[in-house]
Amino acid sequence: MTSSERPRVVVLAGGVGGSRFLLGVREALLRRGAPQATAIVNTGDDLWLSGVRLQPDIDSVLYALGGVNDTVRGWGRAGDTERVNEELQAWGAGWPWFTLGDLDLGTHLARTGWLRDGLTVTEVVERLSRRWPLGIRMLPMTDAEVDTRVRLEGGGDMHFQEWWTRHRATLAPAAFENPGIVDAAPAPGVVDAIAAADVVLMAPSNPVVSIGPILAVPGVREALRRTSARVVGVSPIIGGAVVRGMADVCLTAIGVATAADAVAAHYGARADGGVLDAWLLAEEDAGLAASVDGLGIRAQVAPLWMRDLELSAALAEAALRAADA
User: Fold this and answer.
1) How many CA atoms, within 13 angstroms, populate the side-chain half-sphere of residue 185?
2) Cβ of 284: how many Cβ atoms within 10 Å?
3) DSSP states of 168-223
4) Backbone angles phi, psi at 134, to 5 degrees
5) Cα-based distances in Å from 102 to 77, 257, 280
6) Angle CA(244)–CA(70)–CA(239) in degrees, nearest 5?
7) Cβ(162)–Cβ(115) under 8 Å?
8) Are 108 and 101 in contact (CB under 8 A)?
9) Domain ranges (residues) in the chain
10) Phi-psi group of 251: left, alpha or beta (phi > 0 → left; psi -120 to 50 → alpha; rest → beta)
C-alpha cells in the first residue's frame, strides 16, 4: 500500500492515547483523500454514577475528534465548570474524587435518557456523533454492560474507575475482570467493519484495560484472525516505560513485562493464533526488533511520541505503511 492509496481503516482504541492516535489517523487519511476510518472503542471503563451512565473512553474519543476536549487535564470538556458536581458533593452523592463537569454531565444525561428510552449503546453513540463533524465513525465494542472490576490481591474488588482515579493504581491488583463479557456480543457493525477493512490498527492504548476488553468480546478475536486486512499494532511502551497512566501496573498484574516486545508477545502473531501481523516499535526500542520478528510479527521502527497533531499524523502514516506486505 502506498501513501496515495485509499485504504478502509479500522482502529481499536481507548483512553487518551487512543484519542490522540485517532486524531492522527484522521489527519493521515485526509491527506490521502481516503474514506473515514471506523473506531471500535472500549466500553469496559463504563459505569453508573449518581443515576447516569458514564462512558469515559467513548467520551474521550468523542470530545477529541469534536475538538472540544480539555487538553490540559487530558479528560472532559474544555472550559468546563463544576457547579453541579459541587452540589452533588454537598448532598453526599457521587464520588468526591471523581469530578463531573457541567458540560460533561450534559452528555451523560443525554446518554442516560436515550438508554432509558430504549436505544442501544450503538444507537446512542451514533446520536452523540452527530454533534460535531468527527471524520471518524465511532462504534462501541459491545452494547452489553461489561464494566471492568479490579480484584485485589488482599481480597475484595472495586470498579476500575475507583482503583484508577481514587487510588491511582496503588492497590495491588490480582486480576481485571469484565463480568458478563462471555455472554456479550460485538456491537452491530464491529465484525463487518473488521471483515471489510484493508488495514486494522491497534492504537497505543492500555493493553489490559483498554484493548483487552475489546479483544475479550466473543467474536472480535475471531474476526481479526479471519480478516484479509493486515493488523498493525502500535506499542504503548517507549524506552521500557509507559507513556501515560499506570499501564505498567496493569501489565505486571497479568504477568507481562513493561517492554515493547513483551506486549507484542502478549497480543501474539496471527500466524500463531494471536492478532498481530506487524508491530510499531519506538526508535528507543529499536534493539527489540529482532525479538519481535522472532515472534512471527514484523517489526517496524518509527517515532511514537504524539506531542502534537503533526507527530500523531506521522505515526498513523507509519502504521499504514507498516501494513504493506
Assistant:
1) 6
2) 17
3) TT-SPEEEEE-TTGGG--BPTTHHHHHHH-SEEEE-SS-TTTTHHHHHHSTTHHHH
4) -80, -35
5) 9, 40, 39
6) 15
7) no
8) no
9) 9-45+142-146+179-322
10) alpha
What is the rounded CA–CA span in Å between residue 213 and residue 147? 9
Say if CB 279 and CB 300 are below 8 A apart: yes
Could you report the per-residue pLDDT of 247-262, keeping only the tens digit for each?
A: 999 999 999 999 999 9
Amino acid at 284: E
Stronger pLDDT, 84 or 1, i.e. the higher one: 84
Class of domain 9-45+142-146+179-322 as given by CATH: alpha beta
List pLDDT tens digits, range 277-325: 999 999 999 999 999 999 999 999 999 999 999 999 999 999 999 997 6
Q: Report pLDDT digits (tens) over 91-149.
A: 999 899 998 999 999 999 999 999 999 999 999 999 999 999 999 999 999 999 999 99
Rounded to whole angstroms, the Cα distance separating 308 from 20 reads 9
Cell of 180: 458478563
Helix pair angle (15-32, 309-322), 10° resolution: 80
Query: Is the predicted pLDDT of residue 211 greater than 80, yes or no?
Result: yes
Mean pLDDT taken over the chain: 95
For helices 102-116 and 121-128, give the axis angle rounded to 10 degrees. 140
